[in-house]
Protein: MBL fold metallo-hydrolase
Amino acid sequence: MYLTWLDSNSWLIEIAGKRILLDPWLVGALMFGKADWFFKSERRTQRQIPANIDLILLSQGLPDHAHLPTLQQLDRQIPVVASPSAAKLVQQLGYAEVTALQHGELFNMPNLLTILAVTGSPTGPTTVENGYIIRDLTSDRSIYYEPHGYHDKNLKDFAPIDVVITPTIDLKLPLIGTVIKGQQGAVQVAKCLQPQVIIPTAAGGDITFSGLLLKFLQAEGSVATLRSLFAANNINTKVLEPKPWERFEVPLPQLLNLS
Structure:
């Protein structure tokens, strides 16, 4: 299993011989609507879009997960698996093969891998987006991804999971509260899924931020404090710190998922 962190929430996952592009933001600026005065993120270094993508996987329909300029650049013939809100967006862009997964539904590449949609982050009064469990059927390895730290209460039914990709810092807004649940969410999911490795997402990367929102966002915690929390809770999970755009093999010496 190889991973490449492409900044922010974006990942290239190489598993079961397939290349999965997860929540890609790869071109242009990241904004919500056209309100660059409110929030804008830009790359310090221009990057090439990864080649030979077998599947696009989208957890949410918001721009930091389903980034419209990036999706407009990608090949419309690449199959897409997405939350219902993200699926609606890529269908409007003319993607040829789109699978919308409700919570509890499974996408299957026969004899290679499965992708299970689980309850993810609330993004509106009636919208709850997706987390995913990706399982490699050729090696029995598994990955769980949820980008805001909102973890399904029934995750324990799928333990153990080898790798967890989730936030490891908290982001808070006055009057609203925690919008990304990193530290305690990571402790919760580590206890629940017993992963060998946890890897931070939604942590910036080789990018810059600007806009009014930054005056109100409060970031708390770090990888070091998370490791201390793990030690205090007798959690043996390793916390990795990937570097942006550097491909690495996930160290998984022990096969957990043997039946």
Observations:
- The mean pLDDT is 91.
- The radius of gyration is 17 Å.
- Residues 173 and 217 are 5 Å apart (CA to CA).
- DSSP finds four helices and 20 strands in the chain.
